[in-house]
Amino acid sequence: MCQGDDPNCHAFEAHRRGLRRDLEPERRAFLKSSFVATGAAAAAFAAAGPSLVSPALAQASGAKIAATAHYHLPANAETVHWGFFSRSLTPQVEIGSGDYVTIETLTHQASDDAERMIQGDPGAESVYLWTKDKMGVSPRGAGALDAKVGPGGGLGVHICTGPVAIRGAEPGDVLEVRILDVAPRPCANPKYKGLTFGSNAAAWWGYHYNDLITGDKPREVVTIYEVDATGERDWARAVYSFRWPGVTDPFGVDHPTIDYPGLPVDHTKTQKTFEVLKGIRVPIRPHFGTMGVAPAEADRVNSIPPSYTGGNIDNWRIGKGATLY
Q1: Can you give the chain as a three-state secondary structure string?
Q2: Is the pTM of this model over 0.90?
C-alpha cells in the first residue's frame, strides 16, 4: 500500500499529505534540537568542519513544504559520464527536497552484445558510438586523456547518469535518498521484445582467469544473460558464452584482454557456446552497484573503489525499498 512514497498511486497526494502530517511533530523536534546544537557547538566544530545542519538546510526544512515534482533523467551521451566521479561536473537536473527522479541507467558492458543491448536504443547508441573519428562519451575513466588504451585509460568503468543537484544542500549535510522502485531496461530490438540482457566476464582481474581447470589458460570468457524485462521473473538464464577474441578498437588500438570499457566485439570472430549452464536459474536482485556523491578532495576520481562518499558499493541491498544516507 502507498504510504506517500508511490507517485503512481491514484491517491498519492492524499497519502503524501498524511505522511507529512504524521511526521510533523518529529520534524519540528529535529529542527529545534538542530538549531540548539548548531549554536551551542559552533566553537567546538570550528576546527573539525561544518555542522551537519547547515543554515540553508534548516531554512529549507523550516519553510512551508511545497508540492513535490517528478523529474525524468534519461541515459544518453549528454547525461552520462563514464568511469569517474567529479565535483566539477554540471548537474543534469536540480531538485528540491522531497522531489522524485526517474533515472535511466546503462551497463558498461553492453558492447559485448550490441544486437541485444544497444541496437534500437537511441540512448545506448549515442553512449556507445565509437568510430575512427569520434567517441560518443569520452573520456572513459579518470586517467590520462592520451592513455594508450584510450582516453581515461579505463581507470574506472561505470556509466554514471547525472549528477543530480539537491537545492539547498551544502557540504556537511546528510542526504537521504529513497529508492522507490527498480525496473530493467527493456531491449529495444524488436527481435527480443519483452526481454533484457546483461553481460558477465570471467576476466583477468578476477579469480577465474588463473584458476581454470580445462582448456587453454589463462583465458577470459564472457557470458550473456537473459532477464524478463517486466521484472516478474526473479531469475536470469545464460544465453551463450564466448572466449574474448581480442579486439582492435576503431582507433586502431589492440586489446588482447578486456582492459577498456565499451570495446566493440565483432562476433564474426567469436565462437559462441549456447546452452551454457543449461537448466540453471540464476537468482537476481535488481540494484544499483554504483551510487554516491563526488569526493571533495580531488576532481576526477576512479569509479571502481568504493569510498566514504559511496560509489561502487556493489551491495544487493541497494534496491527497491532501500534508503541511502
Answers
A1: CCCCCCCCCCCHHHHHHHHHHHHHHHHHHHHHHHHHHHHHCHHHHCCCCCCCCCHHHHHHHHCCCCCCCEEEECCCCCCEEECEEECCCCCCEEECCCCEEEECCCCCCHHHHHHHHCCCCHHHHHHHCECCCCECCCCECCCCCCCCCCCCCCCCCCEEECCEEECCCCCCCCCCEECCCCCCCCCCCHHHCCEEEEEEEECCCCHHHCCCCCCCCCCCEEEEEEEECCCCCCEEEEEEEEECCCEECCCCCEECCCCCCCCCCCHHHCCCEECCCCCCCEECCCECCEEECCCCCCCEEECCCCECCEEECCCCCCECCCEEC
A2: no
d(CA 182, CA 316): 12
Q: What does the radius of gyration of the chain's CA atoms come to, in whole angstroms?
A: 23
How far apart are alpha carbons 153 and 156 in whole angstroms? 8
The x, y and z cell numbers of residue 182, run together, are 527498480
- pLDDT tens, residue by residue, 270-320: 999 999 999 999 999 999 999 999 999 899 999 999 999 999 999 999 999
> Would strands 254-255 and 247-248 be described as parallel, antiparallel, or unpaired?
antiparallel
Q: Kindly report, residue by residue over 252-263, the tens digit of the pLDDT.
A: 999 999 999 999
Cell output for 159: 556509466
